[in-house]
Amino acid sequence: MGLKEYLHDIWEAVATTAKGMRITARYGVDPRETITLQYPEERWEPSKRFRGFLYNDIKTCTSCSMCVKVCPVDCIALEAVRGADKKLVLVSYGINIGRCMYCGLCVEVCPPKSLTHTSGYEKATVSRGELILHFVTEEAGEIKARVAKQVAEAAAKAEAEKAAKEEADKAAKAAEETQPPDAPPGKPRAERRESPSTILPATPVFAAENPGAGDDGEKKPAQEQKGEPANREEPPKEGGERTE
Amino acid sequence: MMESLAVSLVNAVPALSGVPLWTMTLLVMVVVAAVVLTFALLYAGLATYVERKVAGDIQARIGPNRVGPVGLLQFLADGIKLLLKEDIIPAKADRFLFALAPYLVFIGSFAAFVVVPFGVGLIASDLNIGVYYVMAISSLVVVGVMLAGWSSNNKWALLGGMRAAAQIVSYEVPVGMALLPAVLIAGSLSLQDIVRSQGGLLGIFGWNLFHNPFTFVSFFLYYTAALAETNRTPFDIPEAESELVSGYHVEYSGIRFAFFFLAEYGDMFVVSALATACFLGGWHVPFLDAEALPVAWGNLFSLGVFLAKALGLVLLMMWIRWTLPRLRVDQLMRMSWKYLVPITFFNLLGVSLWLLVFHGKGIPAMIASIFG
Prior knowledge:
The complex is a heterodimer of chains A (244) and B (372).
Chain A: H1 3-29, E1 54-56, H2 66-70, E2 76-82, E3 88-96, H3 105-109, E4 115-117, E5 132-134, H4 140-175, H5 187-199, E6 204-206, H6 228-243
Antiparallel strand pairs in A: 1-4, 2-3, 2-6, 3-5
Helix pairs in contact in A: 4-5, 4-6
Chain B: H1 2-12, H2 21-58, H3 74-84, H4 95-110, H5 130-138, H6 140-151, H7 155-186, H8 191-196, H9 213-229, H10 241-244, H11 254-279, H12 295-321, H13 329-357, H14 363-370
């Protein structure tokens, strides 16, 4: 190592140190360089397409259960019954956000676009069960009872209508014995109406117990438990209503 | 110094005249020691806070800001936490040496405070071998560090201890050599004498830093070598978190760890104080002679000046720490033996020749003499 190299080494050490210290001094003095966010007091604005907690607008939800089918981690549980107007009525809708991986498939697949990602990302709970978001506030039993009642009413109405029509037909027949009977226009319709009314009330389309309530590891697939509580509850009610 | 203080105290307070002089002297000594220790601890605590703030600023972070106003009480929280922590001694450790090591390190670091010339009359003991004393007593740190490394019975601790010993022994040489020019100029090893030699009408140019080119270089050499002696980044290979977990104090916890920590910060101050006293004029400021002021004001003023200078150098150390990466072991040794040692020897020779040729006059003094 020659003297020239030796001196060059020294010079380089001094110069590079000075250069580095100038940079750190600039950062140290400039208050604008602080990028730390004091989290609970300050927050970043999440981006528009941020996939936060899921939210289901149950007013527009059609209970089609597409989200349940598409979810790769089975974190959505949906229960619905067939209503009087043949549309599905949502009985319960739960999303286990402890399990959700925020892939967004359910949001993409949702036909009425009722399921959306919110910008929420902060949640801390004492137990895992609290991580399940419920979107139907009403009690499941109440909804079922109400729907069953509506269905029964509709059925009774239809029956009454049919009876009235038959009565009218009979009367007409009696009145016009001589005239050839023409085909009753309302009959097939009434018949068709009658048959569903006996099976329809509160037929559960999808019924899954709360996903992962307690232990989600041992949760059975939604289809296996299909409609168990609903079936147990409904038939007596149905029968009771019909006897009235 | 102590005796004179005791004598003046006895003379000032008639009620104390019956007390034997040695009791008073002892009392004064204990009080002074307590004051110095309190200062040292307070300084060390605040220095940790400042260090973290500086680190935060440099890294575009905020640093501690939760405990007290702008986080100022953070050091109290840290201290209480360390006090309350469990004191763990590893099962296979050498218990006696393990317990002894932190005290040696702490003593080695804080005993040096004794000769720090805080002000005109503010010096715990103005030893006539001040510089030599600091060099000697701070070597006690090596013993403590090696003991800590050895007694922990941990490979990282042992490696750290060995590295620390090698490093401190290596850098003692340039540190001593770099301090000698100031001793040569003052003609005394007493730190107060060295400080007094830098006073006078020349103001800032009376300082040893500007005495001649060799002393100017000497200051930076001293500062660099002393930085290495305190085991701080970029010379922190004994601790080297990324290689040795945390080096010789890896097995220490609670208050024992706090001792190592305080010792490091104490070392920083001692090194900076020595640099201030030997090169930056100690408690001198241009155009205001603290010695001419009334005793109380003079002491207070000189204390402020000295602390400002010394703490400025401590701040510089922090700044360097958060700028430079760590040196490799071989680079460290090469820097000491191939660069610092030869250059400090050359410097020492240069200063000696300068003093011989120009009869002890510095460049500023010569320029001043031209203008009368």
